[in-house]
Amino acid sequence: MKKIAFIIFLTTSLSTAFSQANVLPAPPQQGIIALTHATIHVGNGQVINNGTIVFTNGKITSVGTAAPASDAKVIDCTGKQVYPGLILADSYLGLIEIGAVRAERDEDEIGNLNPDVRSVVAYNTDSKIINTVRSNGVLLANVVPDGGILSGTSSVMQLDGWNWEDAVYKMDNGIHFRMPGLAPQSTKSPATDLLKKAYDQIDGVRTFFREAKAYLNEPTHVQTNIKFESVKGLFDGSKIFFVHCNLVNEMMIAVELAKEFGFRTVIVGGTDSYKIADYLKQNNIAVVLNQMHTLPVMQDDDIDMYAKLPYQLQETGVLYCINDFDEMNRGRNLMFNAGVAVGFGLTKEQALQAITLNAAKILGIDKTTGSLEAGKDANIIVSEGDVLDIETNKITNAFIKGSEINLDNKQKQLYERYKTKYGITK
Amino acid sequence: MKKYRLLCWCLCLFMAASAQETFPVNGVHDYRTNYFAFTHATVVKDSKTTIPNATLIIKEGKIISIENGGAVPKDAAVIDCKGKYIYPSFIDLYSDYGVAPQEQPQRSGFSQQMVSNTKGAYGWNQAIRPETDASKLFKVNDDKAKDLRSMGFGTVVSHVQDGIARGTGTLVTLSDDKENMDMLKDKAAAFYSFNKGSSTQDYPTSLMGAIALLRQTYLDAQWYKNLTPVQKEKSTSEGTNLSLEAWNNNQSLPQIFDAADKWNVLRAQKIANEFGVPYILRGGGNEYQRMDEMKATKASFILPLNFPDAIDVEDPNAVRLVALSVMKHWEMAPLEPGMFDKAGLNFTLTASGTTSKEFLQNLRKAIDNGLSTTKALDALTKTPATLIGVYDKIGSLDAGKLANFIIATGPIFEDSTVFLQNWIQGKKFIIDDAGWNDYRGNYKLTVKQPNQTKEYTVEVGGKPGKISATLKASGDTAKTDIKINILNNSVNLSWSNKTDSSKVNHLTGIISGNTWVGTGYAANGEPLTWNMLYNSAYIAKADTAKKDTAKKQDINKTVYYPFNGYGFAEMPKQEDILIKNATVWTNESAGILPNTDVLIKGGKIAAIGKNISASGTKQIDATGKYLSPGIIDEHSHIAITGGVNECSQSVTSEVRVADVIDPEDIQIYRQLSDGVTSAHLLHGSCNTIGGQTQLIKMRWGKDAEDLKFADWDPFIKFALGENVKRTFVNNNNRFPDTRMGVEQVLVDAFTRAEDYQKMDANKRRDLELDALSEILHHKRFITCHSYVQSEINMLLHVADSFNFTVNTFTHILEGYKMADKMKAHGAYASTFSDWWAYKAEVQDAIPYNIALMTDVGLTVAVNSDDPEQARHLNQEAAKSIKYGGLSEEQAFKTCTLNPATMLHIADRVGSIKVGKDADVVLWNANPLSVYATVEKTWVDGIEYFDRGRDSIMRTRIAAERNRLIQKMLTAKKGGAKTTPAVLTPDVINECEEDRRVSSGIQ
Question: Where is the Amidohydrolase-related domain (chain B) (predicted)?
Fold first, then answer.
């Protein structure tokens, strides 16, 4: 009875609020589009003043200062800033709608070793969260499963589409390993027991990969193991090994695993990566810095450690990107997270690169996106001002593969609704 | 009856002829008077009087006399104590000796338990158990008694260490006689704590709840005492309440409070002051970190000697997670008793919290670290005896007192001294008798075998009781170890042949004065006879030099305020400062002033203008920089200890955040570094009517009282919606479960408050209803956690019907839907910028909320509810420019002047205006920008944060950590016991839960 009442409550509340059913996915790009007189932030550090960017059939054909061909549809961007579409490197977008409602969570599967479960099939293109994120300039997101130890397979999604099949940008790009924490904690059972359990679980993952490797050496099997099959891409280099961990000993285990199996490895988290930045660089390990707005690990730590971290990795030459994993605002402050790092040493173009080209490289999609260069997908945003600062971030146009997307969302609609109620006209 | 029994027992001591007892004896009666004379001893009667060459005479468990060279009565057995020291046995006021743990009732399921499940006509709360009488539970436990005796204790006050009111403790000796003979006083003291212990009842779930419960019980007991029998019997009244009866009866006893922590000491003392009860406070060992506050209590203390072990710091990955404060406490804890001594505080020591091995070791460590031996002895004898009013019986060696004394090989506080015997009530208990006779010396050993006689010299060294010896054949130079075992005066000796160590000579014999004689077998199997004659005294090798250096290790005795890495060795002082040429965001009609000077004087803003000069005043060139008023967080849960939620009941207006401020929360410092100067600390949102809140200023380093914002209008936290309905709990059994029920909780509470006000002057003072009455009288103001429009509307109606105003709706993510009604009511709004979709009731949250409410005419603040969010409230404020187009000035006011207005403190803070408090922040860029960082933060004109000083502090932290890590490594190498390095967690509080985690690693 209660459940029924609850469902009734939910459905009524949904129908009274706008369901943003009128926010339609964009059709494919028609004709040639040119953005002119723009300040173009390429994403690789380069800035072109009074520039023009032209794209056709979803691909960028030219970036520079030359005038566009006469048949192009011209969008005058005088006084505006043009950037590559921003990229969330680690996100639950489309998997979780209302965090506290179990029915609305699809990110966490039962079991410890689930490399085969795939986020893409649970991705909900009609999530109301997605539209609030893309209207701030985020156009791509790596949608990541959680739970267990080998959590599953992520896919990079473009934040526009009728269904997940339309919206997938890079299918099954990586496998996610949530390393059991190795921080010794004071608990009722001795800390050493908990640590031992963690080490045993890590060893279980190593054993899994050793067996998978052996299994994959043989082309045919009497009994198929789909868990082993699912990690094939790690061994042939087509998938990325994302290891979620933060402390030095955890990261060193990740690097050592990468070496043993020859995996392309990315550390997600990396709170203490500044302590072993040289080592990470030597071993070509990239880092996804998951959340700028995070408290220091310890009371004695540098009070601004997380904000200083990007600059430290930048100086060492470690490939890193900045992410926004905040569960309260759901990734829409990615660009402001990057902006914070500017206050602690990065240049604005470096900060931009940390949420565009670097993220693309880390996710394995830099051949087609991440910067505004001829031949790449036309994933582009136009902002009235500096996209990294709150006051000036105002996205006027956004294109995914050349298609101009609708920047409306449920929150804007509610705003309009109540402006009407109160007769506010601004 | 009890008194009578005690009297009988006393008389028995003096009238042996009339000695009788009710207990049957199995066998032949063996009456003894235990008449002994201890001669030639050095008797330390008390810390002031030592009698050399004394004769101590005891009889029937009592001291008869102590005299220098005193004569020995003919019928007393003589014990020669030449070279020995005799001290009064110790007294421990905080013990659970012989008090069996209570049987713990089991809690069933996860549902809340609203009332006590104690059997009997006791009070409503299971943690209030003043009726517990340890004398009725006491059972001699010889193992534990032996343990305590070996530390030197003769008497303890034992109580059941369970609950908030724990009942009475009983004074017993540590003799092995039957309970009736050991018990000196059935009720010696009453005990209290903040810990509800085994109580399965939900209330209290928090420290502030425990404090409220204690306060309310004092009031209830007073009321109950004055009830007439007729009043009691009324069906609407209390009936018989044995707990309150016992509580009242216990008040005449010494009151001992187990605070167990420096801040809890102060919290307990506050209750003591409020109700005029002099608590004897048991500390936790960290009180040295706040000596000024400890002195100010003027209380007596019971201090544990629970010095922490060194941390095993060999793994840098693990040590990285140990806070400096933890390492520093390891170094400084042994200083505590000495610091109390120097400060002239009255204190006693307790064995609780230490093992028998640690106790003496730590006692001596405390003496090495500044505790005087006279104070140490007082703290273990006279002081505890005096505190519980039994110094006429125990606590010194004087005629007429109990014959409770330690016999030791030397002055008891010296490391080499061994406790030999502990006599209790005239009865001997051996601790380590092997040391009674000092056999050390140089001997001549003669061994006669059938065909030969061999001569050796034997050197017996080591410690009395733990001797070691070597043997050397005459004419030889090499020494061989010789094993000597002595039991009473029988002795065994054995040593190996020099040429073949498997061949062993073994001898047995007896010691008679200076001569040892006996028989045995040589290594070759031949029988032998032997004798060994004392030749000369043993000369100890000097190894004291080594020990002295160990003792004199460097200790950094600097106490940092607060006691953590970012604490101040010396508190920053209020200064007069002239800030030159800044862009000043005034929040006043003047708006944003370029190239402007601001003068700070006496903690206030003294002048604002161009080209101000103030000679002799410190100047800061702020060219290119921005000066703004400090950020005020309307909704914070930092700096609260022991839980932010008293979750057990739907109405808990009696609990007060003010009671549980944690001034050492690192979040205070971090938030200063982001421009926060005041925070409104709220109870959580677990119940409809939560606790009383506390506004603080971020005065990093000060204590809880000094953090409080002076003369503010008191507030209280309310909450509506999912949290108070316990939506996330399965099988909730706490009313309410729906928003309909929430309304009725409110109506019921305020109706009761109205009725309460009409009652006569003799009414029971009810802390819960007192707070609600203040709301009705517009003397206390509400900040109400709320989200959806229906519940906002409901509360407006309830408030209107009881004729009060809801001051602030906090969180209020659907405030934009009700803005017109809130405005009409006169409420303020405090909200998040862009949080949403984390639970069902926030699915209509929009980031345009602030702008919409502002445009309708409400005064709106942006709040944190999260220690991380609070670090960028300026950025959160900026979002109302992006979402809804507020001006920069409007936006910045949402984190400064507007929260000040809704907290009724806008006359003092929130803008830069002459006469207001100098709570200001210097930024390197537009304070609304993500690129802006804080350079300096002042509160009351005191520079609590400075980026340059922060960097110096980090260098200091690194150096201190390294010094202590090295010191611990050395300690471990030197054989010190270590404890594993584990994460020192930060406490992170949010509305819904209290978490102990370190972020960034989970």
Answer: 352-414
Give the CATH number, domain containing residue A348: 3.20.20.140
Q: What is the ipTM of this complex?
A: 0.95
User: What is the pTM (predicted TM-score) of this model?
Assistant: 0.94
Instruction: Round the CA-based radius of gyration of chain B to a whole number and report it.
Output: 36
CA dist., res. B180 & res. B172, Å (int): 9
- Which residues from B are below 8 Å from A293, CB to CB? 868-869, 871-872
Length of chain A: 426
Q: Tell me which architecture the domain covering B33-89+394-438 has in CATH.
A: Roll (2.30)
**Domain B441-537 falls under CATH 3.40.50.300:** no
**A2 domain residue, yes or no:** no
- Report yes or no on A9 lying in a domain: no
SS3 breakdown of chain A: % helix, strand, coil, rounded to 5? 35, 25, 40
Q: Do B868 and A293 touch (CB under 8 A)?
A: yes
Of A192, A271, A300, which is closest to B957 when you measure between CB atoms? A300
pLDDT tens-digit profile of A214-235?
A: 999 999 999 999 999 999 999 9
State pLDDT tens for residues B971-996.
Answer: 999 999 999 999 998 776 766 555 55
How far are the Cα atoms of A70, A78, B960 from residue A66, in angstroms, in the given order? Answer: 12, 15, 61
Please give the Cα distance from B851 to B368 (Å, whole number). 65
Task: Provide the Cα torsion B237, B243, B245, B249; round to 10°.
Answer: -160
Q: Which of B190, B239, B203 is nearest to B117 (CA)?
A: B203
- Give the three-state DSSP class for B884: coil
Of the partner residues B869, B875, B980, the one whose CB lies closest to the CB of residue A336 = B875
B928·A391 Cβ contact <8 A: yes
* Superfamily covering domain B631-909: Metal-dependent hydrolases (3.20.20.140)
Q: Which residue has the higher pLDDT, A66 or B107?
A: A66
Residue B539 confidence (pLDDT): 83
Q: For residue B81, what are the CA distances in angstroms to B344, B402, B414, B415?
A: 35, 19, 19, 20
Q: Does B867 touch chain A (CB under 8 A)?
A: yes
Shared domain check, A104 and A214:
yes
Indicate whether A390 belongs to any domain. Answer: yes
Residue from the list B323, B673, B1001 with its beta carbon closest to the beta carbon of A299: B323
What is d(CA B280, CA B254) in angstroms, rounded to the nearest whole number? 8
CB proximity A111 to B under 8 Å: no
* Confidence (pLDDT) at B450: 87
Dihedral sign for Cα atoms in the order A371, A372, A378, A381: positive
CATH number for region B573-630+910-940:
2.30.40.10
Domain containing residue A26: CATH number: 2.30.40.10
Choose among B324, B565, B846: nearest Cβ to A415: B846
Q: Based on the domain organization, do A75 and A109 belong to the same domain?
A: no
Place of tokens 């009517």: B689
- Whether chain A has a CB inside 8 Å of the CB on B673: the answer is yes
Query: Which superfamily does CATH assign the domain made up of B92-102+120-253 to?
Result: Metal-dependent hydrolases (3.20.20.140)
The range of the structural domain enclosing residue A95 comes to 86-369
Contact state of B930 with A300 under an 8 Å Cβ cutoff? no
Dump pLDDT digits (tens) for A254-273: 999 999 999 999 999 999 99
**Token pair of B287 as six digits:** 């009180």
Domain with CATH 3.20.20.140 in chain B: 92-102+120-253, 631-909
SS (H, E, C) B427-490: EEEECCHHHCCCCCEEEEEEEEECCEEEEEEEEEEEECCEEEEEEEECCCCCCEEEEEEEECCE
> Which position has the higher pLDDT, A1 or A317?
A317
The answer to whether residues A169 and A271 belong to one domain is: yes
The pLDDT of residue A404 is above 70: yes
> How is residue B560 annotated by DSSP?
P
Domain assignment present for residue A34? The answer is yes
Does A10 contact B at CB distance below 8 Å? yes
